[in-house]
Write a structure and sequence with these properties.
This protein is an all-beta fold. The protein is built from no helices and nine strands. The radius of gyration is 15 Å and the shape is globular. Pfam families: Cpn10.
Length: 98
């Protein structure tokens, strides 16, 4: 990876959701724009706050897709990340940074 780029593998959640009012929303229903989570697979040399293995929150509309070895990945800039979820190996505590 070059510069401030991240290669991430998006998490796929195609299951039905349930609203706070109890209504079942099918996976095919088009709703408001939502942010998505992805796992960082590779990071460029100038990435400062995200490490490989972290989960990042990003806007699925602002992305470039690429297929490598039959797996779909997304290419992002570090500045396009809205949040980072990282796991500390020392005590297995998780941190969420927005």
């Amino acid at each position: 990876m070059l510069h401030d780029r991240l290669l991430v593998e998006p998490e796929t959640d195609k299951a039905e959701r349930q609203s706070t009012g109890g209504l079942v929303i099918p996976a095919t229903a088009a709703g408001p724009k939502r942010l998505a989570w992805a796992k960082v697979v590779a990071a460029g040399e100038h990435v400062r706050q995200v490490d490989v293995g972290d989960r990042v929150l990003f806007d699925p509309e602002d992305r470039a897709e690429v297929e490598l070895g039959g797996t779909d990945y997304v290419l992002l800039r570090e500045r396009d990340v809205h949040g980072v979820h990282t796991v500390d190996d020392g005590d297995n505590a998780a941190g969420l940074y927005l």
